[in-house]
Amino acid sequence: MPINFHDKHNRMTYTTRTADVSWLSLIEEHVGISGKKVVDIGCGGGIYTKALANSRAAHVIGVDFSSEMLKGAARQCENLSNVTLQQGSAYNSGLPDNTCDIVLERALIHHLHDLDSCFQEAKRILKAGGVFIIQDRTPEDCLLPGDENHIRGYFFEKYPHLIDMERSRRHKAHEVQSSLDSNGFTVAKTAQLWETRYIYPDLAALNKDLTQRTGRSILHELTDDELNELIEFINSKLKNHTDPIIEKDAWTVWIAVKI
Fold this sequence. Notes:
Oligomer: single chain
Helix content: 25-40%
Number of helices: 10
C-alpha cells in the first residue's frame, strides 16, 4: 500500500541523508541562496531545509502537511536559528502573500494531481521576480535502466507492474512547463541532474536501507516477500561490484521566475 506520511513509524524515513554537493552546486549556480527568504514546501524530514539554512539563507520556512514529518524535520534542523517549521500544504501553505524570495518543491509534485493550484500557491507567496524551483522525476527519469549507480531502475526490471503505477503518478516535462507558463511564471532553466542519493560502504548497507524502504515511497507498494525478492535480485546484479556503492537518481529541475 502507499506510504502513510502521517504514521509515526515513518517519521524519520526522510531524515537519513544529507543534500548532495551536486544539488547544492546547481542551486548556487542558477539561483543563489545567501541572504534570501526561502520556503521549502513538502519539506518532509527537513534534509533540504537544513541544506538551504546552511547555505546562508536569511530564513528558511519548512512546510509539510504531515505533523509526523515535521517532527522528523525538527530533529534534523535542531539548533538552526534561521529555520521555522509549520504545517501546511502545496495548495495552502498558510504563508502571507508576496513575502518570500525562493520557493522549493523537491520530490513533491508526483504526489499531486492539481499542478495549477500548486503553482498558483507558489506564485501567491513569492515576491515579484521571485524564483520557483521544482525538482521531480519525469517518467523518463524514473524508467532509466538499472545499473550499479541507478539502483531504482532494478525495481522496474524486477517488477514491471510498477511501471504503469510510476508513469501514472509522474508528470511529463511538457505538463510541468505548460502549467508554469499558464500560472504566471517564465522558465529560466531546465536542467537534468544525477544527484547522489547515498554512498553505501558495502552491499549489506544497501540491503538494510532497502529493507527499511528508506525514503522510497514506491517500495511501500510491495509486500515484505516481494521486497525480499527484489533485494535478492539487486544482489545478483551487483555481486561483482566492488565497494562502495554510490547510488544516484536522475531528476529534472525547473527554475522559474514569477512574472
